[in-house]
């Protein structure tokens, strides 16, 4: 059961005291409802105009009792209400200033525009991988919730230059536009590329015809969640075990298996060797599932495929195994596992 806020309980008690006083003095003195209400208000606020006064002994006793308790309670309600307002405003201001200081210290981070269903998936993944990021969201309740969770978030319009600058667009290495409106994502992409031409932008597209517009606007990658979801639904019926395995790798943070991208440096012993000659599987325990070479993708490379400098290896393995491969690709010798 949801707890009733303090201000609501105090207000209910105050109204109850007023109503009891109104009906009590009305009954004892025979006043009209309006006169009884007037007498109650001026008495509880300690104004006391004296135009209406009780004349019966019962009315006088009743007035003394409810005035003593009523005025004290009114002062308590007003004081508590004022404290809640001041503390709330002060907490909000201090919280925002603290958030801005933390964001100003971010460097090489990623900006997430929108904290809807798609944005929250991105946030969860970045939290798990400990990737520095800041969120831009215009829903006040969502912003409040995320701040309580310790997430760096700015309340504002992600399409505005000032908001992106405040989020550190000039220092960021990437931006993800997840807003439900394709037009907003196009505008964010254009603004982002204007402020930081070298930044990587991944954008969400709801409509098929929006993908080309986002690419023309400067997006490096465009994702259509609905299209991907449809294809996965189909595969989940045709190849359920495959989908379960992929879901385990991508979404189950408890599993040790991960997919990683690793760049082969020129000083690496892997350079100019075939996958068979490099003995990557024997030395690191990882499996190379693809190689990206400039604009070319080599999917499921053959054992005699030669590894070159600056190749991007896409490998699967445990965190420890992938760390070994990263060291191997970076130029360090690695013993067999």
Describe this structure in words.
With 337 residues, the chain is an alpha/beta fold. It folds into three domains: 93 residues, Helix Hairpins (Orthogonal Bundle); 118 residues, Rossmann fold (3-Layer(aba) Sandwich); 81 residues, Regulator of K+ conductance, C-terminal domain (Alpha-Beta Plaits, 2-Layer Sandwich). 53% of the residues lie in helices and 16% in strands. The protein has 13 helices and twelve strands. Strands 3-2-1-4-5-6 form a six-stranded parallel β-sheet, with helices on both faces. A four-stranded antiparallel β-sheet has the order 7-12-9-10, sandwiched between helices. Strand 9 and strand 10 form a beta hairpin. Helix 1 packs across helix 2 and helix 9 packs across helix 10. The two termini are 55 Å apart. The model has no long low-confidence stretch (mean pLDDT 85).
